[in-house]
Each structure stands twice: as C-alpha cells, then as structure tokens.
Specification:
By secondary structure, the protein is mostly beta strands. 9% of the residues lie in helices and 38% in strands.
Length: 116
C-alpha cells in the first residue's frame, strides 16, 4: 500500500507499507518527506543545501541507483534516516560528485526506513 499526503495539491509525505493479513493491522515500511514544511531530526528541511545538513561533512554517502540515479543518498547520526540530495551538474550514473559540487546540492527527500 502507498499513501500520499498532499498539501495544496503538492505531495508532502509518501508512506509505504503492507496492509497486514486482516487488511487492517499493517506495518509502515518507509516514509518519505518531500516538502520543506516538515523537518528531519536536527532541523534539516527539503531544499536545504548539503553543507547545511552536514556542515562537517560527517555523512556516509553513496550514489543513487535505479530511479534515484544522478542523486546521492546519505546517512548521518541516525542510520534509519536517509537524505537524498540532487543538483547540477547531476552525477553520472554510479558516480559521486566532487565535494565542492555536493556542498551546493539541495535536499530533495528525507527518507525513513523501518528496521527489518
């Protein structure tokens, strides 16, 4: 199941999960914040620069794959929370942009993924 929360016609949150065997008692598997109206732990909001979210560059980052290619997905102090950054020039498929380029990229989504 996928639920989307809209605000003034724009997607704010996407929630994914399963509906459970009885159709009512499902579990949330992931949540994506796609609007600057909701802050992540530490105060980061969609639209913030990489250098604002990770001022000391203390992040574990990897290039996005599949639908997320050309972006970078990073984790910080809380491993269940991931931050997806995008910018120009876009990263080549499977490549990380240089530090100066990444510092200017903007936060596109804040992702929370349930523990298995």
């Amino acid at each position: 199941m996928v639920y989307q929360v809209l605000e003034k016609g724009k997607r704010v949150i996407t929630v994914e999960g399963d509906s459970g065997s009885d159709g009512n008692s499902g579990k949330v598997s992931s949540l994506a914040v796609e609007s600057g109206s909701i802050a992540a732990p530490g105060g980061a909001r969609v639209g913030a620069s990489f250098s604002y979210v990770f001022p000391m560059a203390k992040a574990q980052c990897e290039p996005g794959q599949g639908e997320d290619r050309g972006t970078v997905i990073c984790t910080g102090a809380q491993p269940a929370v991931r931050y997806q950054f995008a910018g120009k020039p876009a990263a080549s498929d499977g490549e990380m942009p240089g530090p100066k380029v990444l510092a200017r990229w903007r936060l596109r989504r804040i992702l929370w993924v349930a523990r298995p």
